[in-house]
Structures are given as C-alpha cells and as structure tokens.
Amino acid sequence: MSNAYDTIVVGGGVMGAAAALGLARGGMRVVLCEARGLGMGASGVNAGTLSMQTKRIPLTPYAIRGYTMWKAGGDAVGFRETGSLCVAYTQREADVLNRQMTARRDAGAPIELITEGAARAKEPNLRPGLLAASYCAADGYANASLTGAWYRRQLAEAGGELREHAPAVRIEPDGPEIVVQTTHGALRARRVLIATGAWMKAMSEALGMPLPMRVRVNTVSVTERMPIVIRAVVTHASGLLSLKQAANGTLLIGGAWQGRGEAATFRGEVVPANLVANLRLAQYVLPKLAQAQLVRSWTGFEGQTPDFVPLAGLLPGTGNIYVLGCVRSGYTIGPYIGKLMADLMLGREPELPLFDPARFFGEKAPSTT
C-alpha cells in the first residue's frame, strides 16, 4: 500500500467537505470518504437557515463570514437573502431577546431592535401583541438538499477525490501515518481529519479518546404550497422556532425539537408530542399556518459539545488526527470553519481562532503513540 494521500477527510457534511476543498485547493492530495452520499447527513436535511440571530455569541464572527460564503454560492445552493425577524410575546421572552440580540450586535452582527409596528410592517401576518422584535437584513437561507452537489462539483474541480458510500470502519495510527479502513478498502495518509458530526462520538471512543458529545435528533417539517404569507426567516426568542417560506410556497418549520433514534443506524424517528409542540408554536406566531396542510416531517442527527462551540483542531496526544464539527446549528458557519481548518492543516495561520479539542482533556490527554 503506497502513501497515496496527504490527508484523508472522514465525513462529507458541510464542514468536512469545506475542509477537504480548502486542502485540495492548497495543493494537498486529499480523499474524502463518506458513509452515504455527500451532504446526506445533518448538512443535507436541516432547514437551511442562515442566521446571525440564532448563533451563540462566540460564533457570531464565524457566522458573518460563513454567511458571506453561502451568499457567494448563489443559485447553486439555493441562496436567498430574505432578512430575519426574531419575535417575543411575553416579558420574559422580550428580556431574553433584548439581552441576546444586543450582545450579538456588539459582537458585530448587523441586528436592529425594532418596534412591534416595524415588525408587523415587514411581516403583517405575524400574530399581533409583540412585546419585542429584532431584525437582521443580512440573513436568509439556502436549500440544504443542494449542499452535496455543490461541494461534489467544487471538489472535482480542485482535484480532490471522493469516496461515497464508503463508511470508515476503523482508524488505525501506523507509525507516522494513519490507515483508514473503509468498507471499500483501506486508505493511507499522513494525517486524517474526522468530521463526522454526530458519529464523531463513537469514532473518538474507538480511538480511546472519548469526546464529551451529545447526539441530538432534530425535527424539520414542510407544508404544502400556499400563497406567500411570510418573506423573512422568522424565529422565536425561545430558540424553539425557525420558520421560512420557500419560493415555491412551501413553509419549512424547525426549531431543534427532538426526535429519537441512534446515529449508528442512520435512522431517526419523529416524536409526535414534540412535533405537535413545534407546530403549535409556529401557528401561534403565524396564525395563517392553520390554512396549510403538513406534507412531511423528518429528523437529522447533530453532534453537540457541552460548551456549545465546535471541536476544531488536533486531538491531543496525536500529531496527525484532527477533528472538526459538533455544534448546534452549525450550517451557517460550516463553509468558513472548514476553510479555517484547512488553513491550520496547511500550516497557515487561521484568520480567526479555532476551538481546540484539548479543552476537554486538560492535563490528562491520552496518547495514541
């Protein structure tokens, strides 16, 4: 077996694909192996929301730059700049909204705190009685189902190799190199990047370096087509609603309400009570939803760290195993943080700091050598 690659990227979501693309463009010989098709995990089944109003404050600078990269994708990713509104109907919700949006604005997000009248002027079909609202003109959405095709085309143009439907079953350090055993044969390289999202927990455990991750099973729903009732992305101060209407008239409803299932099986299941709660909140905010029929609901697996920011860097105790991923609502930042990871692995100074996995190991970092 020859030293065929400089880097093996395991995982073909937006972060892994963006990192592989950056590495290939930087002159490395890269192969990306993905258990299913490119972009078929959380990156392909989420609601596609691109918002600075829903990001945790430490991630605001990353979201701003990630949004710019999605915008550059244009029609190829189904990008639409619609603006977004976050709404609050109780005093407690209003206090949360004002505090969080002020902090995000201070971190650089172009967010305005606006009056009820201004909010309803933008979206007259919202339920009356708003106590607070915020607006971000530079928000919108992409069509998540186009993510895989977008990166597949760019990887091919950059000379990166892609092995789809080739799950990595084992990662074995072999001296200064790494062997990734897949269902379609072994791959060898000087370094490996694990970017498998919800599946990273099991992979880190197999390496003897368990990462403290939680696996989430998020639910998304879509309605039948109906006349346009909202134009902006609408979210709720609780963080439990994301609502947008596509150009074809369908409405996408999300909010990270949890389903159930095991990531190892790739099969999730909608929890009826949580789905009903999600739909009730959506209809409360937008009463005209009562006129729409629900067409389909589905789930997607997402990894999340205890501190709600990504894993992005070298695994402690190794010199050639990197990890990337695992943050709630990581779609917006995905292209940018993938680029930063590629810069790190190419020996360049990343424009913004990454999120070192060593924070979870302290002085007890295990070693694979």
Short description:
This protein is of the alpha+beta class and 369 residues long. The protein contains nine helices and 21 strands. It has two domains: 5-43 and 145-212 and 306-364, 3-Layer(bba) Sandwich (FAD/NAD(P)-binding domain); 83-139 and 214-304, 2-Layer Sandwich (D-Amino Acid Oxidase, Chain A, domain 2), CATH 3.30.9.10.
Salient structural properties:
eight-stranded mixed sheet; alpha+beta; D-Amino Acid Oxidase, Chain A, domain 2; 369 residues; 21 strands
Describe the structure.
With 369 residues, the protein is of the alpha+beta class. It folds into 2 domains: 5-43 and 145-212 and 306-364, 3-Layer(bba) Sandwich (FAD/NAD(P)-binding domain), CATH 3.50.50.60; 83-139 and 214-304, D-Amino Acid Oxidase, Chain A, domain 2 (2-Layer Sandwich), CATH 3.30.9. Helices cover 27% and strands 28% of the residues. It is built from 9 helices and 21 strands. It has helices at 14-25, 42-45, 60-73, 91-106, 116-122, 147-158, 200-206, 272-285, 334-345; strands at residues 5-10, 30-33, 49-50, 80-81, 84-88, 111-114, 132-136, 140-141, 161-163, 168-174, 177-182, 185-194, 214-223, 233-236, 242-245, 251-254, 260-262, 267-269, 294-304, 311-314, 321-325. Strands 1, 2, 9, 10, 11, 12, 20 and 21 form an 8-stranded mixed β-sheet that branches. Strand 10 and strand 11 form a beta hairpin. Helix 1 crosses helix 9 (334-345). Mean pLDDT is 93; it is low at 363-369.
Spans where pLDDT lies below 50 across 5 or more residues:
363-369
Largest beta-sheet details: 8 strands, mixed
**Which class of secondary structure composition applies to the elements?**
alpha+beta
Mean pLDDT: 93
What's the helical proportion of residues?
Answer: 25-40%
The DSSP helix count reads: 9
Which of globular, elongated, flat, extended, rod-shaped describes the shape? globular
The CATH first-level class of the largest domain comes to Alpha Beta
N-end to C-end Cα span: 21 Å
Order of helices and strands: EHEHEHEEHEHEEHEEEEHEEEEEEHEEEH
What's the count of strands?
Answer: 21
User: What would you give as the CATH superfamily of the largest domain?
Assistant: FAD/NAD(P)-binding domain
CATH topology call of the largest domain: FAD/NAD(P)-binding domain
Instruction: Note the beta-strand portion.
Output: 25-35%
- Count the domains: 2
